[in-house]
Structures are given as C-alpha cells and as structure tokens.
Automatic annotation (TrEMBL):
<dbReference type="GO" id="GO:0016810">
    <property type="term" value="F:hydrolase activity, acting on carbon-nitrogen (but not peptide) bonds"/>
</dbReference>
<protein>
    <submittedName>
        <fullName>Hydrolase</fullName>
    </submittedName>
</protein>
<dbReference type="InterPro" id="IPR032466">
    <property type="entry name" value="Metal_Hydrolase"/>
</dbReference>
<keyword id="KW-0378">Hydrolase</keyword>
<dbReference type="InterPro" id="IPR006680">
    <property type="entry name" value="Amidohydro-rel"/>
</dbReference>
<dbReference type="Pfam" id="PF01979">
    <property type="entry name" value="Amidohydro_1"/>
</dbReference>
<comment type="similarity">
    <text>Belongs to the metallo-dependent hydrolases superfamily. ATZ/TRZ family.</text>
</comment>
<feature type="domain" description="Amidohydrolase-related">
    <location>
        <begin position="65"/>
        <end position="420"/>
    </location>
</feature>
<dbReference type="InterPro" id="IPR050287">
    <property type="entry name" value="MTA/SAH_deaminase"/>
</dbReference>
<dbReference type="InterPro" id="IPR011059">
    <property type="entry name" value="Metal-dep_hydrolase_composite"/>
</dbReference>
Length: 452
C-alpha cells in the first residue's frame, strides 16, 4: 500500500502500538493501520524509509494502544435501570420483588434506557454487544444507531414473569407463542440484511422460565432457521432445583436431551454445575459467557478452570453490571487464579484478552469477520490513551491493559472503519440527550415498582 500508484486509503492510523489479537503477530510496536471499504487493508510497522500511504483521513495516535473491539457476549442494556441496586440483591432482578422488572417496561422506556446501555458499552470499547431483554423490535435499531454492532433478541419464555418474583411459576402457551414469534420476526427483519451491524440469536431465557415442551420448540426453530441460541444456564440454585423437580435432571442434562447443548449454544453463567454437568458441557463444546464480575459480586464463581479443561469455550460478558469489559477481563483473570490457587502460564492476561475478542467472535459465528486486527477483516478497533499516569511505564502493554486500564481510558472507537467515538465522546448521538431521557424513564419505572 505504500506505492504511489495504490488507491488512497479511507483511513490511516499512525503512531499507535497495536495488540492485534492475532497469535501469529500479537503486537506491533508502532504501526500503520489502513482501512479501505470498512476493512483492514494495511497492518504493518511504520517505515522510516518510506512515506506513509495516502489516505483521505489520517489520525495520529502516538502514545495510544489499539486493540480489536471487544465483544460483550452477554448483556442486558436495559438493566441499567437497577444500577447500584441489583449488585447487592444476591439474585437476578427478574426473580426479585420490589424493583423494576422487564414486564413493567414500556416500549418508550425500553428505547431510552437501552440507548444508555448501548452508549455505555461503546464508550468502554465494545464494538459488539449480544443483548437480550424486552421490546427488542424497538431497542435493536435504537442501540445500533449509537454506532456499535448489536445482536439482540427479546426474552423468549413461556413463564408469566409477573409472578416469578413472588414465587408463582405459571407457563402459558400464548406467552411462548408471542415471544418466539417476535424473535423469529426480528430475525427475518435483520439477520443477514444489515451489513453485519445487526443480528439475532434466539434468546431462550432459562430452563426454568421455559417449559420443557417450549424448549423443544426453540430447539426446532434454531435447527430450521440456522440461528444460534443464547440462554442463562445453571445460574441459580432455584433454577437447578426447579428443573430437578420438574424434569428429574440437571439443566445441562435437560438441554442435552432436547438437542440444545451443542457448539452453537452460548450459555451464560454455568455456576451451579456438578462434575457430570461440567463433563457434559465440555463434550458439547458450548460457548460459556463467563460473567466474572457480576457473579463474584453475587458471591458466586463459575468453575472456569474445570469448564475449560473439559472442553467448554470461555467468553466474557458484563450481564447487568456496568459495561466495562477491561474490568471484566481483570476479574476473570483474578477469580480464575483464585480457583487454581496459583498464577499459571496458561491463565494470563493473554488468556482473558482472547476471551474478550476472538473467543467472543467465535461464539457469535463471526470469527472470519471480526475479533482481531487482521487484513481483510472488518475494521473494528479501539484506541486506549496510554499517556496517562496509571498506564506508565509501558513495560508490558497487554499487562497494563488487563491489570491497570479501565474502559474510561478509551479515546477512540471505530466500527467498519467509521469513527464512532472520538476524544472519548460519541460521534453519532448526543450523550446528554441519551442520559436525560434514560434518567426520566428509569425514575418513572422506580415509581411504579414502589407503588408510588
């Protein structure tokens, strides 16, 4: 690309160090990164003996560190509505009385709150979120307008959620029909038709909130459409007890019997699993969305070391915690070492960095398109400002990123080569407007939840 007869790049980034996410060449000290037609067209060390390639736009990122965009594989953008409260409940908001819950949220409220969650994720360096909650037909395009890739689906369940938090479990066919049809309609609208900016995974909420016949329907729908499935699995003792009483099996055993436990399943949590469950999950090669910080905050830890050894594929998500994937990498590294009781060569910053990038891309079926900085891939990348005191010295760039950095150190984010965050601010939306609208929506929800 340095030859003068080559067409000009759309964007050229200079001066930055790069953590590529590519094992063949994991780090470039000072790089030229070129983008053409939304894809990486040039990735090489800057050359002192040659002029930089021509480009329509050039950004000097000297002193910054560029990484692939992070993939937040399991999140609920709307659950910022219980921020600062859900962390101390010890249980998922949907199962807890007295706080705002999904069935209370209006479409307008969902629109406002989801945009807040999406913007938070983007500003912290996520270029793709896999989000599930309510009113997906409204919030999916709304979140995508913020600038990131959005894989989304409404919660698919046939339980009447209005009774779950008070211990009433009633499965209703009409609810299941509506939720599954909504998901399939969303997929028909967006899957494969959005230039890779929007997608759908069938979000079966959890084994306990879906009846066994309904889980069978979801499995058939996944097979017929080719869509992947995402779910919560073995996330609580209540779930495990209910499935044992209802089906005489553990949740992983039930999903295996129904044909859902396979390498196209993305399962969040996997906390309360037996040795047999771990072996079963490993044999199936499922993708596990490890919610390192959220689970630890709730006094639980998924057995990540055993799951990985058995064959499970570990990814990272923030769930209903704030959307800083750098912090999640740090928690994943720490809780994994606590389980092992040692610092080992196979559980290092590179391990959790891979979980936040390429492992997430594989879980989404997008490993050939995103997840690393490589020629021909879509140009999703993030620049961290390493000129800050807490990121000095730069003896080990990846070590600094995982152990010391924060999402708030993100200066620039690009998706498809389009700069969607610059100087730490969004370029496509007004941050103040999003904050104002979300605050008003959340205040109204809390008033209703409290009976005011």
């Amino acid at each position: 690309m340095t030859e003068t007869n080559q067409p000009a790049l759309d964007l050229l980034v200079t001066g930055a160090s790069v953590l590529t996410g590519d094992p063949a060449r994991p780090e470039i000290e000072k790089a030229w990164i070129g983008v053409k037609d939304g894809r990486f067209a040039l990735i090489e060390e800057a050359r002192a003996d040659a002029p930089a390639p021509a480009a329509h736009r050039r950004i000097d990122l000297t002193g910054r560190v560029v990484t692939p965009g992070f993939l937040n594989i399991h999140t609920h953008a709307n659950l910022s509505m219980v921020r600062g409260v859900a962390e101390d409940l010890g249980f998922a908001p949907a199962y807890t009385p007295g706080i705002p819950q999904g069935h209370m949220v209006t479409p307008d409220e969902a629109y406002a709150i989801a945009r807040l969650g999406a913007l938070e994720a983007l500003l912290f360096g996520s270029t793709l979120i896999n989000d599930t909650f309510v009113h997906a037909d409204v919030v999916t395009p709304a979140m995508a307008e913020v600038g990131l890739r959005v894989w989304s689906c409404g919660r698919i369940h046939d339980v009447d959620f209005s009774g779950v938090s008070v211990g009433r479990w009633e499965h209703v066919d009409a609810i299941g029909d509506e939720k599954l049809n909504d998901a399939l309609e969303l997929a028909a609208r967006y899957e494969g038709k959005s230039g890779g900016r929007i997608g759908v995974q069938l979000a079966a909420h959890a084994p306990d909130t879906c009846s066994t016949p309904f889980l069978k329907r979801i499995a058939r729908a996944a097979e017929e459409t080719g869509l992947r499935v995402t779910t919560h699995l073995s996330q609580s003792k209540v779930e495990v007890a209910r499935i044992r009483a209802r089906d005489g099996k553990s949740p992983p055993e039930l999903l295996e019997e129904l044909g859902l436990l396979n390498d196209r399943l993305l399962a969040a949590h996997c906390i309360h699993v037996s040795e047999d469950d771990i072996a079963r999950i490993g044999r199936a090669g499922i993708h596990v969305a490890h919610i390192a910080k959220g689970n630890a905050t709730g006094a639980t830890i998924a057995p990540t070391q055993k799951l990985r050894a058995a064959g499970a594929k570990l990814t990272l998500g923030t769930d209903n915690m704030h959307a800083d994937m750098v912090e999640v990498m740090r928690w994943a590294l720490a809780v994994g070492r606590i389980q092992m009781g040692a610092v080992t060569d196979d559980w290092q910053p590179s391990t959790v960095f891979e979980m936040a990038t390429m492992a997430g891309a594989r879980a989404m079926g997008l490993e050939t398109e995103i997840g690393s900085i490589a020629l021909g891939k879509k140009a999703d990348f993030v620049a961290f400002d390493f000129r800050r005191v807490h990121l000095t010295p730069r003896t080990n760039v990846l070590g600094n990123l995982v152990h010391v950095a924060h999402g708030r150190d993100v200066e620039l984010v690009a998706v498809d080569g389009e700069v969607v965050v610059e100087a730490g601010a969004p370029t496509k939306v007004n941050e103040s407007d999003i904050r104002r609208d979300a605050e008003a929506a959340i205040a109204a929800l809390w008033q209703r939840a409290r009976g005011n």
